[in-house]
UniProtKB/TrEMBL annotation:
Its main location: membrane. PANTHER family: PHOSPHATE TRANSPORTER. It is found in: Membrane. The keyword Membrane applies. Pfam families: PHO4. It comes from Sporosarcina siberiensis. The lineage of its organism: Bacteria, Bacillati, Bacillota, Bacilli, Bacillales. It is a multi-pass membrane protein. This is Anion permease.
């Protein structure tokens, strides 16, 4: 019992660490366009994002419940706390590596792949809740394509609305709109991404027989929201540089179109209780906006590297988590 309690405490610590890292790793995507167009300076942008992420994280719990029960059933998982700990270590490692190199990879893919990999290592492929797992994978795979189309359509709409306007004056005014879209983007990020850590902690509480339902306790919500808010306040300038400038040259109208379309998609996923990769959605929306503006204006070489990272994240994190579980079980 003492070992289970210690493991549960470690899971809570590592889950909050994951949320903290997610804050400066993924939240940079939410403010990247507004910073790159100088609608906001980095410091106030990060402060605003931290506050809006905190508020968003406290508002919803549906995604957290999906994470806690739809990948594997925590009530049936043997060595559940150890499995979850291995998954968190794997996801954190991947996040730190990709952050170091300035690659906007998916924390969601890393976490979900890691949970699946560690669980399979512990109990075989039969442990997966295939209906729930496939539903999550579908959301992760389809959402970037929806974002690409959404960004394209939103930018097309903006072009129609601004057709007879002075572009210089319009861009100057749209910078003010970007402050609002960046705030909305940060809020929706909190409603989806912060809940992943809440779901993980709830899984650990169930696995450690410290909770008998999949309800998300208030202290879990506050702790996860605080960790993400603090992580956001640290900032993620490397990711901002990649998302805000290396995919395409972003003007205020482009940034507003990308922010608005991606925020709508992320929030829709939250309402459907589906975890999506905010990184994928935002980057894809920017590509869609760039395509509507000028296909050659998108730096497809950079986009290709980002897409490759998206593809390899889930299987690599699953393998790493499986290995981490095997190492941990030697000592426990």
């Amino acid at each position: 019992m003492e070992t289970v309690l210690v493991l549960t405490i470690l899971v809570v610590i590592f889950a909050l660490a994951f949320d903290f890292i997610n804050g400066f790793h993924d939240t940079a995507n939410a403010i990247a366009t507004s910073v790159s167009t100088r609608a906001l300076k980095p410091r106030p942008a990060i402060l605003m994002a931290a506050i809006m992420n905190f508020v968003g994280a406290l508002t919803f719990t549906g995604v957290a419940k999906t994470i806690s029960k739809d990948i594997v059933d925590p009530f049936l998982l043997e060595n559940g706390s150890l499995v979850i700990l291995a998954a968190l270590i794997s996801a954190i490692l991947w996040n730190l590596i990709t952050w170091y190199f300035g690659i906007p990879s998916s924390s969601s893919h890393a976490l979900i792949g890691s949970i699946a990999g560690a669980a399979i290592s512990a109990a075989g492929f039969g442990v997966l809740n295939y209906s729930g797992f496939i539903k999550i994978l579908q959301a992760l795979l389809i959402s970037p394509f929806i974002a690409l189309i959404g960004g394209f359509l939103m930018m097309t709409l903006f072009k129609i609305l601004l057709k007879n306007r002075n572009l210089f004056k319009a861009n100057r005014r749209i910078r003010y709109l970007q402050i609002g879209t960046a705030a909305l983007q940060s809020f929706t990020h909190g409603t989806n991404d912060a809940q992943k850590a809440m779901g993980i902690i709830t899984m650990a509480l169930i696995a450690g027989n410290l909770q008998t339902t999949d309800d998300i306790q208030l202290w879990v919500r506050i702790a996860a929201a605080t960790a993400m808010g603090l992580g956001t306040s640290i900032g993620g300038y490397k990711i901002i540089k990649t998302v805000g400038g290396k995919i395409m040259k972003i003007r205020p109208v482009n940034g507003a179109a990308a922010d608005l379309s991606s925020a709508i998609i992320i929030f829709s996923a939250t309402l459907l209780h589906l975890p999506v990769s905010t990184t994928h959605v935002i980057s894809s929306a920017i590509m869609g906006v760039g395509t509507a503006q000028r296909v050659k204006g998108v730096k497809w070489g950079v986009a290709q590297k980002i897409v490759i990272t998206w593809i390899i994240t889930l299987p690599i994190s699953a393998i790493v988590a499986a290995l981490v579980y095997r190492i941990l079980i030697l000592f426990l």
